[in-house]
Structure formats: structure tokens, C-alpha cells
Amino acid sequence: MFEKQRDREAERQKLGKSEKQKGRDTERWKCRKVAKLNNRDRIEIDFARAMERAQEMEEIAREMVSIARTGVPETLQLIGGGFGGENGAAFYRKGSQLEPSLFETAQRLLKAAESVRFTAELIYRAEKGAEKIF
To answer: Could you tell me which residues come within 8 angstroms of residue 61 by beta carbon, excluding any fewer than 6 positions away?
Structure first.
């Protein structure tokens, strides 16, 4: 086992930086780059990032709703049918309890996305207003 770990480590050293390290370096570079931007650009970039995150959250919520509507019932029928009898019915009942929680989680995620958008817009307006003063 230790030989495998040593071999992997030797391979990593041959290749240079690990993927994890490359990711860290990229994040550091982005942070430095943002720090060098002027305030006006930073405001725009921060706002755009927040709006992108809100959009991603909404997409995830839509996917969750889709899974709850179609994926869960189909899967439960397939698996539950394999059990047959009382066990199949019990499995289907237990699994059906997941659907409402998926819908609820999706709704919460949509509300969180709405909050991110609202907060981003509020901060954006405040920073733009402060920029005019200074």
C-alpha cells in the first residue's frame, strides 16, 4: 500500500503541481487581479458574480423540481416493483415522502436566489451612490 502512495507521489512530482494546487494558484491570481482593479470595475464584477450565483441557484432549483416531479416517482415505481407485495408498497410510501421535501428545498433555494439578487442590487446601488460622493 505504501508503495502505491509513493508511486503516486512520484508521478505527481513528475507532472508538476497537483490539480488542487493549480486551482489554488488560479484563485490567488483572480484575487490579486480583482484587487488591482479600480473601484468602479470591482463594483461591476462583484455585481455580475452575485447575479451569476443567483442564476445558478435558480437553475438548481428548477432541476430539483423536475426530479421531484418525474425522477422520484419513476424511480420509486421501478425499485418498488422489484420488491413486490407489502415491501414494495412500504418502499413506495417511504420514498414518496421525499417528494414534498424536494419541492420545499427547491422553493427555499429560489427564495435564497431572490435574496441574493435583492442584496446584490442594494449593494450595487449603494456603492454607485458612494462613488458619486467620493
So the answer is: 106, 107, 109, 110, 113
Structural contact between residues 45 and 33, judged by C-beta atoms closer than 8 angstroms: no
CA 69 from centre of chain: 21
Q: Mention every residue, 6+ apart, whose C-beta is less than 8 A from residue 131.
A: 39, 40, 43
d(CA 53, CA 47): 10
pLDDT band at 4 (very low <50, low <70, confident <90, very high): low
CB contact at 8 A, 57 and 116:
yes
d(CA 102, CA 109) in angstroms, rounded, equals 10
Which residues touch 41 (CB under 8 Å, ≥6 apart)? none
Residue-wise pLDDT for 63-82, tens only, equals 999 888 888 888 887 777 77
CA distance 77 to 83: 10
What burial class does residue 70 get, using C-beta atoms within 10 Å of its C-beta: 0-12 exposed, 13-18 middle, 19+ buried?
exposed
Compute the residue count for the chain: 134
